[in-house]
Design goal:
The protein has 229 residues and is α/β, with parallel strands linked by helices. It has eight helices and five strands; from the N terminus they run E-H-E-H-H-E-H-H-E-H-H-E-H. Helix content is 51%, strand content 12%.
Length: 229
């Protein structure tokens, strides 16, 4: 996607990605709290004020998105649930609303945004997982984002067997989490493929370890990317 539309955006857009059960949501919250706390010397580098650091997610960050999230993730016992192509279009609609209503305005103001999932999840889940046409997905993502690209995407890489075990202990699963192991294996392969394809944007994080260990790995990556001399 074209970055030309981001030249006037002084904020930072950091996305957390990964398969279900990788610890993504826990680490995203820890990272947000760490950003707010300003816990290391900056060596003269600028740091956002707490009021300029935002936590958001896809789907579900806007009023429209909340409705779409309910449709997309609520399990159903009927056979007339959301079809794969419909699912793809609903995710694109959520993203278009999110970008225009939340992401771009705050980035233009110089704010930092920490986001739970973005375009790579659509490629991994609907492209690799569902088997939908990836060129179509790329086109829809391009339309929905209007050229917006993350400054950094952190892919939390946890072996599938471990993520499956974690999900089993979490209790009730959403509609996507309930899909079979073969689907989740394809999703994992999708994230790995994307990380290899876009190394300038996506950084792999070893998510196997304690919460503190994984959090420190993420912090090191961010310091090196944005605050090193």
């Amino acid at each position: 996607m074209d970055r030309s539309g981001q030249k006037s955006m002084t904020g930072k857009f950091i996305v957390f990605e990964g398969a279900d059960g990788c610890g993504k949501t826990t680490q995203l919250r820890r990272f947000y709290d760490w950003l707010q706390a300003k816990t290391f010397p900056l060596n003269g580098n600028p740091w956002p004020e707490p009021s300029q650091i935002w936590l958001t997610k896809e789907p579900g960050a806007t009023s429209l998105g909340k409705t779409l999230r309910q449709i997309l993730l609520t399990p159903t016992d009927t056979d007339d649930g959301v079809l794969p192509t419909t699912e793809l279009l609903l995710y694109a609609a959520d993203r278009a609303q999110h970008v225009q209503q939340v992401l771009k305005p705050k980035l233009l103001q110089g704010h930092w945004i920490v986001c739970d999932r973005h375009v790579d999840s659509t490629v991994a889940y609907q492209g690799f997982g569902r088997g939908l046409d990836r060129a179509l997905i790329e086109n829809l993502n391009s339309i929905a984002t209007a050229g917006l690209v993350s400054n950094l995407t952190l892919w939390l890489d946890l072996p599938l067997e471990l993520s499956q075990a974690r999900r089993a202990h979490r209790g009730e699963a959403d509609r996507m989490e309930q899909l079979d192991i073969a689907f989740h294996r394809r999703v994992y392969e999708g994230f790995a493929s994307l990380a290899a394809q876009y190394p300038e944007r996506i950084v792999r994080v070893d998510a196997n370890g304690s919460e503190n260990e994984v959090a420190e790995r993420i912090q090191t990556i961010v310091i090196e990317r944005f605050f090193s001399e």
